[in-house]
User: Fold these one by one.
Assistant:
Number 1:
Amino acid sequence: MSYTALYRKFRPLEFEDVKGQDHIVTTLKNQIKYDRIGHAYLFCGTRGTGKTTIAKIFAKAVNCEHPVDGSPCGTCPTCKAIAAGTSMNVIEIDAASNNGVDNIREIREEVAYRPTEGKYKVYIIDEVHMLSTGAFNALLKTLEEPPEYVIFILATTEVHKIPITILSRCQRYDFHRISIDTIAARLSEILKEEGIEAEEKAIRYVAKAGDGSMRDSLSLLDQCIAFYLGEKLTYDKVLEVLGAVDTEVFSGMLREILAGNVKNAISRLEQIVTEGKELGQFVNEFAWYLRNLLLVKSSDDMEDVLDMSSENLALLKEEAQMIETEVLLRYIRIFSELSNQMKYSSQKRILLEITIIKLCKPEMESTKDALVNRIANLEQKVEEGVSVAVTATTTQNMQVEKPIPAKRPELPKAIPEEVEQVVRNWKAIMQDMSGLIRGYLRLVTLSLGGENVLLLVTDDPVAADFLNTPEHKKEISDVIAERIEKEVEIQIQRNETNRPIEESYVDLSKVINMDIEVEEDL
Ligand SMILES: [Zn+2]
């Protein structure tokens, strides 16, 4: 007998089985009940959150001969044909491989014919953001005047890539990441049905590793089951199969960092590498560990939220006493940023090593955060009775941090239209950039340099240098030009005024009343 992947085997066949998207299911069911079905839907959200699953159930429900309370009956010939994939009424298209104008023209020609049976022809276009510009234009014509028997369901993980003209013609539904509780409950159900015993802790770990995606969680569960076929699934086995790291390792690493012990911290990392752990995952999980620590630090009764063994909780509580909240927040910020950078880097280990060294030696950095860290270190030494020699670098940096009376820069007389467009579309523009550029652009303030020049100014010398290379500068210009359909001259500059950016430069995002509602959604 061939093996069916769990996520296929347990794919929900009716609305009631879909987990974690109640807000969408209720609305769609009501539309069917009250016969207010739309002609174009856009389903957006991360992978594995149920977009195509719901699309298929919806396709069944609108065609069902006797739907029950907005749900497909599952037993009429139409329902059966759709479930078996033999119905001509449900057409699934993967836009990743069918993204050309011709593919969409074909659809437009087909759309002219009424369905031979059932009420609706439902076109499900997955990964719709992959369509070419020409294909989008062709699709738009159909969406403008759809025949009453046609429904389009467009699904995408990257909604910011969908042209506004398409967006404006669709009912939009945002699929949420599914909570760990919801996923864990579903995994338990499935394991029970499969007759597999598993520790609650093991299940929760798999659910957490799926990061909000039911499909990913089920695939991970598949891997674990396959590896230990016929055995009880324990927490340790799951950790082993998924190449994950036990909490103890994080605890040890954190303690070395707090003690400023570079050598030990790096040799712990060495150990992790030798064991074949995936470093990207290590960073994500370390960030998660720090987040737990923050929870423990902020409240006494976090046991339920944290869901960890009493031994680990005891370690965590001890560490919570060892670290200042500000320092902890700095660590979390650094590790979250690192986690983004690692996705696109081929030098994961070096990035991680540099980060660990920086955390061990905050005196190497001069940001305000690092300063807080250093003060915390000094305070501790004072408490411990160690005499502290105030070094030149410490005082120097402290002077830099002295409050300077705030001064507002002069407002520009007029902002060129194209620059204004860039500012309004900044979020969408950022989304179109490649990984590292996007990361560094987050550190940038948009300002005006000269009459028609968009000035990107940052306090971060590394960001300034990185963005200023001809290649990166070109990508930024190109993405801007593509988005607003105009060339804009840009200049990238480090803030060398010795004053905060907001006192030396006009922050255009504050001057121009950004349409945040719309831009956030993109
Ligand atoms: Zn039916």
Number 2:
Amino acid sequence: MIGRKIGEGGNSEVFEWGDDNKIIKLAKPNTSILALEREYRNNLMAWKMGLSVPKPYEIVEFDQRPGIVFERIYGETLKERLFNILIQQINADQLMTVWNDVRYTARLLSEIHHLSHEGIPPQREFLKRQIRSVGYLGEEEKSAIIDILDSFPIKSQICHGDPNPNNILMSNGKAVMIDWNDATSGNPETDLAEYIIMIRFAVLPSDTPQNVVNVFDSLREGIIDVFLDEYTLLTGTTYEEVEPWIIPIAARKLSADAISNKEKQLLVNEIRIGLRYKENKL
Ligand SMILES: Nc1ncnc2c1ncn2[C@@H]1O[C@H](COP(=O)(O)OP(=O)(O)O)[C@@H](O)[C@H]1O
Ligand SMILES: [Mg+2]
């Protein structure tokens, strides 16, 4: 039944499953059956609403690990596409591919944010729980961040929660969003802030060739600009509306298992600078 391993993320390993059209996402020990059930429900909801997502089939157990069986999406992740370009001498055509993939991300998010659904968890409490669980910040800092959150109006749009380039597959020219574990009903600025923070602060694995690190560094702010320009074009939402979300979302990101300590330190610095700046302005 189980075949070749075809992917991995912070919470799972992904294998071929049964016939050619299915995969199984098997949980890593950090991921509970409850989290998996939530992802299954969120993904099914997104699929039923006609979003560009794989069809989820069922929850099963394999080798004493819970897993979700999904439709297999043939294609590369946007992260693979980006790094395949970065390892070469990047030319104008390839740069255009990078910008277009970034635009696809903005478009996919705008389609998701356009919709709402009562069946997914409300965002605000989810965010607060994540922020309170963070060990890298003091209690006063966390309270100040939760006060910032409380100052924002509550919206109820579908948010993906983790729009990173590993969670988007390009299949026959179509972008497909996977990994719906963190989806909530709330303010779409959260997804935009998440994307901006990830591009701005991502620490690449230590075995990444130095020239790839350098080229990526030189593209970071360009990627953010292209992303926001496209999202603004599609929705009218501007960077000014997203900016206040950077501190709370950076704080929430400290609760993620998938990022390194080095990256967490960068986020802690950014949060502290932001909090001090806010305090001085008051
Ligand atoms: N439906 C799918 N079809 C093809 N590949 C997939 C599919 N789902 C996941 N993958 C691959 O497995 C990787 C990890 O999946 P993901 O759902 O993002 O797991 P995690 O929650 O651990 O991040 C993806 O980056 C992708 O390469
Ligand atoms: Mg993922």
